[in-house]
Design brief:
Elements lengths: L1 E6 L5 E5 L4 H10 L6 E5 L5 H13 L2 E5 L2 E5 L10 H6 L6 H9 L1 E5 L12 H9 L3 E5 L2 E5 L7 E3 L5 H11 L5 E5 L5 H12 L3 E3 L5 E5 L7 E4 L4 H13 L3 E5 L7 H9 L3 E4 L3 E5 L9 E3 L11 H8 L5 E5 L8 H8 L3 E5 L2 E5 L8 E3 L3 H13 L3 E5 L1 H8 L3 H7 L3 E6 L1
Parallel strand pairs: 2-14, 3-13, 9-10, 17-18, 21-22
Antiparallel strand pairs: 1-22, 1-23, 3-5, 4-5, 6-8, 7-8, 10-12, 11-12, 14-16, 15-16, 18-20, 19-20
Helix pairs in contact: 1-2, 1-7, 4-6, 5-6, 6-7, 8-10, 8-12, 10-12, 11-12, 12-13
The structure holds ligand EPZ.
């Protein structure tokens, strides 16, 4: 097991390159099944979740070679339609393999992905969408079997703009006969990146990034090459690291358009943020102003994946902030750890009231989910004294590529230790 040991108080100063997006590359890796050929994917971050999905692709029969941040997947030949159970339980987003497998092989068997630390994570919208395309779904003994003679395009209206359900339906519909439209689709930038990947493969998808996506099914796909977009949540995390230490950081290879809600909230807290073509600079004073209200919403609202990091910043703001977490029902686990560091936080259901204190104190804290863990690291950077963050390899390594080394390059006093 690994922990981070952080001695707080250093002002961060310098440049950092933002890695490729975890939440873009996972559906893109699933999509590499569809063409039965070669997909060359650049700007892939080295993350535990990426390794988990790559290993699943290998287990079902794909060949995958990794060279630096480039992965070459070859999905030719017959693949095993049984998705291995253990990794699905470890990483529930592997459910994204369903649509691609159903589209190509007309059959897929996968174990029910468990919930995770932040919520139950139901998949009803995924399954109803695949059914609308002609999938016949049977559930027994914890497994889902989905099969069809043929997939047919259809009009699908999502009750909720679910990111994963939108992606799963796209991955099946590209091989369906006829036209599929997805109404009330998720608008996250990762959806537009998946659309670009699919169209390079020969699919005909439009509307990605808007709430109506149109897919005209095709029956031939080709090899392709693609570069994954930068990770907007990692970018936001480094921006908060600058803010929490009163530092000045330049983020390279970021798409400012994708982080507008984060820029807006950090601007409200008093940070000076300048946008360049593919870069952002952020400089902040000693202590942030409290942002009155942070409500997480589907894109382009404030991202739920940045709620914990923003809360860490507000812990020593001037004033009181109110958070409303509208997306996941159990995404405040980091609050009790921040309270150990001296934060003044009250949780009332989906609301969290954060009263800024003068300074957090270092403490021994435990990360309980990916973004909550990152928030504890950020809190440690600004705290007085030493902070130990446990469970780094279980949670933080899933979604951050060498977080400690990149923070160290910006001047943070952080080391990763075994325990
Ligand atoms: C994606 O999860 C991201 N993961 C999450 O990032 C992110 O927090 C989330 O989108 C919201 O932006 C990946 O892309 C791999 P949803 P996903 O389906 O697709 C409900 C991180 O930290 N829902 O948009 O699972 C669900 O319960 C992770 O990087 C249903 O009710 O999110 C939740 O309340 C965490 N039925 C809401 O929708 C369904 O069938 C949002 O879920 C599906 C979802």
């Amino acid at each position: 097991m690994n922990k981070y040991v952080i001695n707080g108080g250093n002002r961060l100063d310098g440049e950092v390159k933002v890695e490729g997006s975890k939440n873009a590359v996972l559906p893109i890796l699933a999509a590499s099944i569809i063409n039965g050929g070669e997909s060359i994917i650049h700007n892939v971050p080295s993350l535990k979740d990426v390794n988990t999905l790559v290993n699943m692709l290998k287990t079902i029969g794909c060949t995958c070679s990794i060279e630096g941040n480039t992965i070459v997947v070859n999905s030719s030949g017959d693949l095993d339609i049984n998705i291995p159970e253990k990794p699905v339980r470890e990483m529930r987003s592997s459910i994204i393999l369903m649509g691609a497998m159903l589209g190509r092989f007309k059959k897929v068997k996968i174990s029910f992905p468990g919930g995770c630390e932040i919520g139950l994570r139901p998949i009803d919208l995924h399954l109803s969408g695949l059914k609308m395309l002609g999938g016949k779904i049977t559930e027994s003994h914890g497994y889902i079997l989905c099969e069809c003679d043929k997939l047919y395009g259809n009009e699908i209206h999502l009750d909720y703009p679910s990111v994963g359900a939108t992606e799963n339906i796209m991955l099946a519909a590209v091989s369906a006969e006829g036209i599929t439209t997805i109404q009330n689709a998720a608008r996250e930038p990762e959806i537009a990146d998946l659309q670009e990947f699919l169209n390079k493969m020969g699919a005909k998808v439009t509307g990605g990034g808007s709430s109506t996506i149109r897919i005209q099914g095709v029956n031939h796909f080709q090899n392709l090459e693609h570069t994954v977009i930068p990770d907007r949540i990692v970018a936001g995390t480094y921006m908060v690291a600058a803010a929490i230490t009163g530092g000045r950081v330049i983020l390279k290879e970021v798409i400012p358009e994708h982080i507008k809600p984060i820029i807006s909230k950090l601007g409200e807290s008093g940070c000076k943020i300048y946008r360049y073509d593919q870069a952002i600079s952020i400089s902040c004073g000693k202590r942030p102003n409290a942002v009155d209200f942070v409500k997480t919403m589907p894109y382009p609202g404030f991202p739920t994946d940045m709620q914990a990091q923003m809360m860490a910043l507000m812990c020593n703001a001037r004033g009181t902030s109110i958070f409303i977490e509208t997306i996941f029902e159990n995404r405040y686990k980091h609050a009790e750890e921040l309270i150990k560091m001296g934060a003044d936080i009250k949780i009332e259901g989906r609301a969290a009231i954060v009263k800024g204190v003068n300074k957090l104190m270092g403490a021994h804290v435990v990360s309980r989910d990916l973004r909550g863990g990152a928030a504890l690291v950020l809190a440690g950077l600004g705290a007085e004294g030493a902070t130990i963050v446990d469970n780094v390899d279980i949670h933080i390594d899933r979604g951050y590529d060498n977080l400690d080394l990149k923070l160290k390059s910006l001047g943070a006093d952080i080391t990763k230790d075994e325990y």
